[in-house]
Amino acid sequence: MTGQHPPAKIEIGLEGFCERVVTPEWTLAHFDPAWPAVFSTPAMIGMMEMASSLAIRPALPPGSITVGVRIEVDHLKAVPVGATVNAVSRLVEIDGRRLIFEVEARSGSDVIGRGRIFHTIVEHARFAAKAAPKPASR
Question: Is residue 96 part of a domain?
Answer without folding.
Answer: yes
